[in-house]
Write a structure and sequence with these properties.
about 325 residues, mainly alpha, two-stranded antiparallel ribbon, 2 strands
């Protein structure tokens, strides 16, 4: 029988993957906003995610609740040391959500809501990449939110922009799948550029990490490890090639989006392999950070009941709103 800390670790990983995959592409829609400025294009972009954007953020709430309830030591460390980027991310998401509700009802102020939506999406994505980079490079044991800016380094800034590029790539592939005619062609051209950018960024982050983090280097290159782990980068290359080919035709319009999701899954798998069993590298393993057994048992029924429910209504919602976006709709 699997021990509970490992079970919750896998559940948390699933929640993070679902959030990055689903909220990633709708944050990417906002990042792409400046490249879609012809009449009606931005209305089309908003309509393409108006039915799913708030449901996608359910996974952020789930991930935060799991972290707080199951791994409180990790929650406390991240909140105390990454307070500034976390608060910037939350404020950006608030501005983005407000813009979503008010943009359709505005006339003279629509340009301001467009800016709020786009800037909020970009800042939220950048902060998420900043947090990811900080976790990978390591958090000093005596750091706090204001005593040092250890979360602003060349590496974390690069990962911030890399996450932005990844989300924008997902969004472009999503628009390629959901749109027609000029918008679809424009999305395909953007997706090709971003696909190359994301693949290069993944290589740079991987090389940068193994060169600066000795324990990650040992994990990947000691003994026969690289041979066993080689399928991960090879699958990334295969997913990139398939996506590139499909963006040049209309035979498989949904496949580039799923290949983009696969790239994120492989990236997350590579991260877990690199730092496992640590949740805060070189500080806290998942067994050191976990709550008491009684707390884990108390949370277990809720996890077993509500995660399947969330998955079911997410699948149902996407099934109901499958197909192309039609521009005759207004607002929600």
């Amino acid at each position: 029988m699997m021990d509970l800390p490992l079970f919750y670790f896998l559940v948390l990983g699933f929640a993070i993957f679902m959030y990055v995959s689903l909220d990633g592409f709708d944050l990417g829609i906002g990042i792409l906003y400046p490249w879609f400025d012809k009449p009606g294009e931005r209305d089309h972009l908003m309509q393409s995610i108006s039915h799913v954007w708030d449901g996608n953020e359910t996974w952020m709430v789930m991930g935060g609740a799991l972290l707080y309830g199951v791994f409180p030591a990790v929650y406390g460390t991240l909140l105390s040391t990454l307070y500034i980027p976390l608060m910037l991310m939350l404020f950006a998401l608030i501005f983005r959500g407000v813009a979503f509700e008010y943009r359709f009802k505005s006339d003279r102020s629509r340009a301001y809501w467009d800016l709020s939506f786009s800037a909020g999406s970009a800042i939220a994505a950048f902060c998420q990449g900043l947090i990811l980079g900080t976790v990978v490079q390591g958090i000093p044991a005596d750091s706090s939110a204001f005593s040092s800016l250890h979360w602003i380094t060349p590496f974390t800034v690069f990962t911030g922009f890399a996450v932005m590029a990844g989300y924008a790539m997902l969004a472009a592939c999503y628009l390629f799948m959901k749109s027609r005619h000029d918008i679809q062609a424009h999305a395909a051209n953007i997706a090709k550029t971003l696909l190359i950018t994301v693949l290069i960024a993944m290589v740079v982050v991987s090389v940068w990490t193994v060169l600066t983090q000795p324990y990650i280097y040992q994990r990947w290159f000691s003994g026969m490890n690289f041979v066993y782990l080689a399928p991960l980068p090879l699958l990334c290359l295969v997913a990139g090639v398939i996506s590139w080919k499909d963006l040049h035709s209309h035979r498989h319009e949904s496949r580039p989006f799923w290949c983009g999701i696969l790239l994120f899954l492989l990236g997350l798998a590579g991260l877990v392999i690199s730092i496992f069993p640590y949740m805060i590298p070189q500080q806290l393993t998942l067994w050191q950070a976990v709550s008491p057994h009684s707390s884990l048992m108390f949370i277990l029924p809720g996890v077993c009941i509500f995660i399947p429910i969330i998955c079911l209504y997410t699948l149902w919602g996407y099934r109901i709103f499958s197909g192309k976006v039609e521009d005759y709709q207004e607002g929600y």
